[in-house]
Amino acid sequence: MTTTGYHHIEVEFLGTGTSTGVPQIKCGCEVCRSADVRDHRLRASAIVRYRGKSILIDCGPDFRTQILRASSDQLDAVLLTHIHYDHVGGLDDLRAYCYGSDFPIYARQDVIDDLHARLPYCFADKPYPGVPLLHIIPVREGEPLDLGGVEVVPLPVKHYRLNILGYRIGPMAYITDANHLEPDVVAGLQGIPLLVLNALRFEPHLSHFCLDEALEVVRRIGPGQTWLTHMSHGIGLHAHTDPSLPDGVHLAYDGLVVKLDH
After folding, report:
1. Domain for residue 134, yes or no?
2. Quick check: 29 and 237 in contact, CB under 8 A?
3. Any idea what the CATH number is for the domain that residue 18 is in?
4. Which of 7, 15, 25, 137 has the fewest CB atoms within 10 Å of its CB?
5. 85 found inside a domain
């Protein structure tokens, strides 16, 4: 896919934490005790604004808090990366977007099947008045989606043994919860202007990139700029870790808005 002809794109990080959030319950480490707001991380989610559309990536249990404090509550669609609760636990709070309209939510078929089991009241033949009517559309990796004139390409991602999705939207790609990317995915993203990538902590982890692994992916892709997300308290203090990163690589933080003209 060519990277020419793009215009303004904006990524607003609603949350940049892992499944426990930061501060983590019952933890007294220096990160969890930090007064720096950049160290306070809700569960990972972002809004991508591009060509007049506002696209939410993942809708975790902190969604209500996140959207109320976002710079805009306008949403046109949702992209789900996978079924884990920290990425779908806020779907019931989408009811304000689902009244009287087919608000599109895109997900893999296995995610759709799990949501029918977890949220059966949202899919009942005779739904209870007021429940969100979730209009979920199946997604297949590698098959582009047309979101009102915005092309979105689902990317195959491995989250340990679980097949999940990242997404490319114009000049940016959003990949979370990954611990492996196939060489063809890396090759297809080479030189992308803006990359969002998970980096859980300094130490290796079974199902997520640690910081060194994420930086190796960045080296192989060679993006214009990279913002790391889905971080635990194990990533250290923002004020200490961020300045140590290579040029063009930064820790994202909740409320950060990254704008790119390309």
Report:
1. yes
2. no
3. 3.60.15.10
4. 25
5. yes
Q: What is the pLDDT of residues 240-258, one digit of tens each?
A: 999 999 999 999 999 999 9
**Residue 93 falls inside a structural domain:** yes
Structural domain that includes position 237: 8-261
d(CA 17, CA 14) in angstroms, rounded, equals 10
Structure tokens at 211: 């910081």
Q: What sign does the dihedral 152-131-97-19 (CA atoms) show?
A: negative
Q: Tell me the C-alpha distance between 252 and 41, whole Å.
A: 10
b/e map of 193-221 (b: 16 or more CB within 10 Å)?
A: bbbbbbbbbeeeeeebbbbebbbebbeeb
pLDDT band at 221 (very low <50, low <70, confident <90, very high): very high
**Looking at the whole model, is its pTM more than 0.70?**
yes
Report the number of distinct structural domains present in the chain. 1
pLDDT-based confidence at 4, cuts 50/70/90?
A: very low
The burial of 245, by beta-carbon neighbours within 10 Å (0-12 exposed, 13-18 middle, 19 or more buried), is given as middle
Percent of the chain with pLDDT over 90: 92
- 8 A C-beta contact, residue 150 and residue 169: yes
> Which tens digits make up the pLDDT trace of 127-166?
898 899 899 999 999 999 999 999 999 999 999 999 999 9
